[in-house]
Amino acid sequence: MPRERMARIVGLALRVGVYVFLAFVGLYLFGWALSPTGSFLLEAALGGFLAATAANALAMRFFERAHLTGIGLGWNRASVRNLLLGLAGGAGAAALVLGGPLVCGLARLQPAPGADPHLRSFLFVLVVLLFGAIGEEMLFRGYAFQSLVAGVGPAATILPMGVLFGLMHAANLGITTIGIVNTSLWGILLGYAFVRSGDLWLPIGLHLGWNWMLPAFGVNLSGFTMDVTGYAIHWKIGPLWSGGAYGPEGGLLTSGVVVVLAVYLWKAPVRTQAAYLLGGAGED
């Protein structure tokens, strides 16, 4: 193997390794700092956001002499368009998974027993999910992901990173084999969304649209139960289709909608931006 190629491989492995180390340290430290809140959802979402921000900022500064926005967080007209397209895709996919069964009589929306919804709780959950979605996208589609895309190509990066995304949810409550597969498929879609747009706003929008819509319908999100509206879906079909305790992501309905969402991403009028780590100058 030529020395130049070997040096590139070693350099790539070093950068990715340092980033992973920083991310794990950040997850541990910020998780520990937030543990007194007593909210695992807040600990996971905000802790992940803070860890991802720190790991990406440090890696970009140390290895690239660039700012955090270089990972695809620059803000311009194209960013707004891609974010809105992502929100529409994610929310639309959730509406298909949940609205279809409701219309067909396979599920019923009814008041949740003992529910006591408040506007403050509703806004709190929306903000936590916002930080959670941005944090996960920075963590999984940030510096390491983009460095690998630049070093070994999109195909060799998107699939394994998508599977890793799914496996990282394996400890969630109510997880099933289908849940891991579907979450991995989502990870692959989100990776493709970054490559398609060259920014993180398209995958953030997809992630956020989906995450906001599920609790609004009163179903679990990746094993988390969030009572925000006082209503919940009562399924007339089994957990193989509905996803059971993990939520719709653990069912075959989501498996089918993932295909529809993939076509949407392929055809959507996305504005491609020049990703810094992929050789571009960054967003305008």
Notes on the protein architecture:
The protein has helices at 3-34, 40-64, 77-104, 119-141, 143-152, 154-167, 177-197, 201-216, 239-242, 252-267, and strands spanning 107-111, 231-235. It has a two-stranded antiparallel ribbon with strand order 1-2. It contains ten helices and two strands; from the N terminus they run αααβαααααβαα. It has one domain (3-278). 48% of the residues are buried. Helix 3 (77-104) packs antiparallel against helix 10 (252-267). It is mostly helical and 284 residues long.
Work out the number of β strands.
2
Distance between the termini: 39 Å
Please, how many domains? 1
Global Rg: 19 Å
The succession of helices and strands, N to C, reads HHHEHHHHHEHH
The portion of residues forming beta strands comes to under 5%
Q: Sheet bearing the most strands, described?
A: 2 strands, antiparallel
Tally the helices: what do you get? Answer: 10
